[in-house]
Design a protein that fits this description.
The chain has a 6-stranded antiparallel beta sheet, with helices on one face. About 15% of the residues lie in helices and about 45% in strands. The longest helix is centred in the middle third of the chain and has 13 residues. It starts with 5 loop residues before the first helix and ends with a strand. The chain is of the alpha+beta class.
């Protein structure tokens, strides 16, 4: 199950689980995501990466996330333009408390525009 939160709905995200360790999220680009330079704002790209890696750990039955981001690094490789962005997120390594992840973000021409690495902390430890 994916995380259920108003911010994700506001962004208009579309989720696709590829397997237990990989997922894909599509972000339809809205006019308000474009910055004064005419490209998609870095904060939108960072949010997409964060949402993508956070959903690698399944939400509970109520849609509440079971891991939170403790470290997020985003490298912008190319100005992002187009009608949508696609995030491909994957788990690199899972430990008892930490999950190391990677996310690549592409434009609608399948050109990579950003890469992200993140570490998540499991909140459902008993």
């Amino acid at each position: 199950m994916f995380i259920k939160q108003p911010f994700d709905e506001f962004l208009g995200l579309k989720y696709k689980k590829l397997d237990d360790n990989n997922l894909q999220i599509i972000l339809p680009v809205q006019d308000l995501f474009i910055n004064s330079a005419g490209v998609i704002h870095g904060g939108i790209i960072s949010s997409l990466a964060d949402v993508a890696v956070s959903n690698l750990s399944p939400a509970n039955e109520d849609g509440i996330q079971q891991a939170v981001t403790v470290d997020l690094n985003v490298s912008f490789l190319k100005p992002a333009t187009g009608t949508y962005l696609m995030a491909n997120a994957k788990i690199e390594k899972q430990g008892k408390t930490l999950i190391h992840t990677e996310c690549s973000i592409y434009n609608d021409k399948q050109e990579i525009v950003a890469k992200s690495n993140a570490i998540l902390f499991r909140t459902n430890l008993k």
